[in-house]
Amino acid sequence: MTADVATRPPELSTDTEAARLADLAAEVLDRCRAGGATEAEVGLSIDQGLEVNVRMGEVETISHTRDRGLSVTVYVGRRKGSASTADLAPASIAATVGHALAIARHTGEDPAAGLADPGRFPTEFPDLDLDHPWSVTAEAAIDLALAAEDAGRAVDRRIANSDGAGVSTGRSVSVLANSAGFLGVERGTRHSISCSLIAAGDAGMQRDYWYSAARAATDLEDPEAIGRRAAERALARLGARKLGTRECPVLYVPEVARSLIGHLVGAVSGGALYRKASFLLDHAGRTIFPTWFSIREEPHLRRGQGSSVFDADGVATVASDLVRDGVLVRYVLGTYSARRLGLASTGNAGGIHNLVVEPGNRDFAGLLAEMGTGLVVTELMGQGVNPVTGDYSRGAAGFWVERGEIVHPVEEVTIAGNLREMFAGIAAVGSDVDRRGSILTGSILVGRMTVAGS
How confident is the model at residue 203, as a pLDDT? Predict the structure, then answer.
């Protein structure tokens, strides 16, 4: 994936920009103190990126971006105010600090407000190998996107149309600093190649896609392989049928299985818990999954999509179990939500950092054999999940399986259950782990769900 340098924008110098942002953060903190803040926190970032999209062999869009941002949070006693701006000019910064202070002075006191305990800030900053700039020009990115689309369209004459292919690359540097003495710098890159194709047959048309995402461009799949995978997936959906209503096992492929883990995270996150808006309220220490099932948070994975040394409060991240042997070990808490609950932060302000579902020893074919007869879900639609009760109902598409073999594609069905029962009823996790996001899981087989169709 080499590239010409003809139309490459100026490289983002992360070392230079990090030093400049750190100096600016110190100035902003001084301004906050001078304005009457008893505590303050500043976040500064610069992002640079390139995105190209092609469709049917023609360039549709080329976008170069360079964004900057400042966020300020101040505390006047236990009163909090926040403001942000994309303009780093001195006058704009002064106005933003002024707005944050004004908000704090007109806000009621909150006993949970304030910076994190200084004893929770990291003292070491290991290199997580997250910064891999890709010196790709717009012309070279276009060639890669065209290569993906061309390879997909060449797979079969039934690939009748395209939703397009795209290449994106981005690099960022950010600084988080506060009046308690914490200063953290993060540098990182994110790259991707994607392709979406449309197959046509006697029974109509079907669309599907594939993509690759990584911190380093050398870790991306070849564009031709991405295009062929998108075509094969679209072709496999031709002739999709509806199903009659029934109860059966449901196998979530990895890219949709992560949504199940996402529902767990939402239910055990501090905000949902202190608002008493979770079906897993007061479930820490209880068994909610099968006894063989475990999830571990690994924030320091090298090149991980969710890797970080510290969270959005500056609290050091640490590897720890979320679920061990089926038991919910802890919640997912930032500083504020932890104080509201009378607990300690788990280093999750701003979200989770690489949740790894312990994989099983069966590949996808092995899971099909274990399921026997049931539904493979490759796509989910709608947002029919009640976080308070755990009731779950979503539109789905995928494949019907009999005797461990895929029989035909399926569309326009609804899968329903209750997340509490679905978690307890997980029968297996596959070895086919999808590593393209911050939730790393293989396929997940749920032993029984209601499938509603025609």
Answer: 78
Neighbours of 366 (CB within 10 A): 17
How confident is the model over 85-121, as pLDDT tens digits? 999 999 999 999 999 999 999 999 999 999 999 999 9
C-alpha of 6 from chain center: 33
CB-count exposure of residue 216 (10 Å: 0-12, 13-18, 19+): middle
Give 201's strand partners: 204
* Residue 61 CB coordination number (10 Å): 11
State how far the Cα of 431 lies from the Cα of 429, in Å rounded to an integer: 7
Separation CA 180–CA 65 (nearest Å): 34
Under-70 pLDDT residues of the chain = 1-13, 454
Check: pTM over 0.85? Answer yes or no. yes
Between CA 297 and CA 188 the distance in angstroms is 20
Q: What is the CATH architecture of 14-236?
A: 2-Layer Sandwich (3.30)
Stated length of the chain: 454
Residue 101, sorted as left (phi over 0), alpha (psi -120 to 50) or beta, turns out to be alpha
E strand spans, 19-108: 39-55, 58-76, 79-85
CA atoms within 13 A on the CB side of 41: 18
Domain ranges in the chain with CATH number 3.30.2290.10: 14-236
**Which tokens sit at 235?**
């072709």
12: left (phi over 0), alpha (psi -120 to 50) or beta: beta
Q: What is the pLDDT of residue 6?
A: 46
384-406 confidence digits (pLDDT tens): 899 999 999 999 999 999 999 99
375 in Cβ contact with 413 (< 8 Å): yes
**Distance (Å, whole) CA 167 – CA 52:** 5
pLDDT computed for residue 19 by the predictor: 93
Helix residue spans in 106-222 (DSSP H): 138-153
